[in-house]
Amino acid sequence: MKLRILVxxxxxxxxxxxxxxxxxxxxxxxxxxxxxxxxxKARSQPPDLIxxxxxxxxxxxxxxxxxxxxxxxTAKVPIIMLTAKASEIDRVLGLELGADDYLxxxxxxxxxxxxxxxxLARSQTEETAKDQLRCGDLLVDLPRxxxxxxxxxxxxxxxEFKLLSILMERAGRVQSRDQLLRDVWAYDSLIDTRTxxxxxxxxxxxxxxxxxHLDTIRGTGYRFTE
Length: 226
Description:
The chain is of the alpha/beta class.
């Protein structure tokens, strides 16, 4: 069964180009020309991944991302933001709202396909490690992709789940930002390490009291402590 990708952008030429190349790569494609349509289609049939432009009519991509992350049916669907805005604040805002990655226009189709392939592989690969990771009241159920604190579930994106799992599996060992970029995001060439910091901030917010287990090692990276 083909993996389904929702492409939401109000530029017809770009949508046509992306749709053609994604179909050539073996994906099933749905499209939307504005934020409202993107939200409606994502809700009616949650895709395996969403390409979401920021600047769209009706409702911008940031608002769509925020809504999708609040709803259980779409909370874990990987989202790549497509943006003509190159400023750092726009990229960080997208990541803070729950996007898994971003691409600044104009981008190469080859890079887009690579990002999609890696994110889908990361979100769909079954964990081969032990079934559960536990630290006190914090529980990570790997096969079921669930995180809970005192038996209360915590909604997480695929990237946040992978980040927490890796830190817990390597409890007590400092993980550099570069190492986390390679192991969580699977990038061969390093991107801005502030991507890691943004996701760690979101992870801490979601964990609440359990965030006490996450240490920041100044100038180096992060560590999970028991």
